[in-house]
Amino acid sequence: MLLATVRPTCNTTVSCAFHCFKMTSPYFVESTSVITRGGNKTVPHTGLATTLKTRMERRVLRAHVKQEEEDSSVSNQSLGRDASDIGSSRFHRSSIGQSKAEPDKARSLLPLAPILRRRRGQVKVEYDGKVEPKHWEPPDWSKQLGHVRQMRSARDAPVDLMGAETCYDRHAPAEVRRYQVLVSLMLSSQTRDQVTSAALQRLRAHGCTVDNIVNTDDDTLGQLIYPVGFWRTKVKYLKQMSVMLQREFRGDIPNTVEGLVRLPGVGPKMAHLAMDIAWHQVSGIGVDTHVHRISNRLGWTRGGTKNPEETRKALEDWLPRDLWSEINWLLVGFGQQVCLPVNPLCSVCLNQHSCPSAHQASPAKRPKAGSPRSPHSKTSRVKLEPGLGLPPPSSATPVKEEPLATTLSPPLLPRKRKSKAKTFST
User: Fold this and answer.
1) Cross-referenced PROSITE patterns, in alphabetical order (predicted)?
2) Which residues contact 201 (CB under 8 A, 6 or more apart)?
């Protein structure tokens, strides 16, 4: 009997791999399962990893929920304040029982745990050290200003006795007083207060009003204001300014800085001082040569300034507005008595220990071109010999000392003898 062994086409175990459907729960991931011929089902390592991942997430969830309960017991007020966003503490306690039955709702609490931890309290951080001010301020400026006030307490400087605040006629009408203040400020440019006060007194005796100045000829007006600096130019500006006030402003000066600057011969310094003295309005700081010089010496300008207009902007950037009115007469009188343009009296100044420019030699003025002291002049190259061209002083006659002249006259030099031309005989 022949036994025929029927061999199947595949005598080995044939397995088929099928992809499982994706689960809707976030705890499951895409995995594969293997089904053998005997119907046994094996779980690969991917399913085990999914199970471990689910257990770890549940442990993390329980830890967060436990931390929530501790936080809610310590800070009930802070959690009650956020009840509209994350619910009350009763909702979080009930979510513990629902975490096993409804994992989706329990998992939704995971993003809230870091928020609760951040809102538990705010830590106030304090830094050691000096906090910089909002705007730049020079060091010790308040102390220096107090010293200047102490040195100016007598108010006996020329600006206090003969300045623009004292030169006008106090019994005249208001518009005439304001006009005289502006005239005094125009004459004070590049002029000492003593000369300005004397010139304004002569103008007041002549009649210092808008109509009278317009009707006065230039020669008479020049004789009245002489010897103020640039008196010819100031005569022209006075006539043009008076005509403009008569036509456009009805004989009164403008009450704005923009209107004052439009007048001939009126700059920003005069405009701000006129607003302060005539209209009693503080519109800015009046900076003249004294204020410009002292501000740079004390270090009140950041990096230094080159002209009074830059100094005005630098001071207004940090100086309190309630000090703008007095800073002009304080520094002007201080510059006239102590902080002189040349050879300042630093030994008697109360700011000598805090002033950056204290006890420094003043720069020498450069002589004008063409003057005997100019380095390019021919006379400056000649060395003066003592007693040149003068008889020697005798012991019997006393020598009379005379003050030095302001300008050097060219020295007397001996004349050179003319050489005779030589003739050659043939």
Assistant:
1) ENDONUCLEASE_III_1 (PS00764)
2) 167
Angle between helical axes of 141-151 and 327-337 (0-180°, round to 10): 60
What pLDDT is stored for residue 57 in this prediction? 76
pLDDT band at 56 (very low <50, low <70, confident <90, very high): confident
Residue 264 near residue 244 (C-beta atoms within 8 A):
yes
Q: What is the mean pLDDT of residues 361-382?
A: 53
Tell me whether the omega of the peptide bond preceding residue 227 falls within 30 degrees of 0, making it cis.
yes
Q: What average pLDDT does this structure show over 265-294?
A: 96
- What's the topology of domain 141-348? Endonuclease III; domain 1 (1.10.340)
How do the domains of the chain map onto residue ranges? 11-119, 141-348
Query: What residues act catalytically?
Result: 269
pLDDT digits (tens, 9 = 90+) for 326-370: 999 999 999 999 999 999 999 999 999 999 999 986 665 565 565
How much is the pLDDT for 385? 38
CA–CA separation, 200 and 185 (whole Å): 10
pLDDT for the residue numbered 9: 43
Alpha-carbon gap, residue 88 to 102, rounded angstroms: 19
pLDDT digits (tens, 9 = 90+) for 269-279: 999 999 999 99
Higher per-residue pLDDT: 110 or 12: 110
Q: pTM for this structure?
A: 0.57
Closest CA to 19 of 5, 31, 6, 35: 31
Identity of residue 105: K
396 pLDDT exceeds 50? no
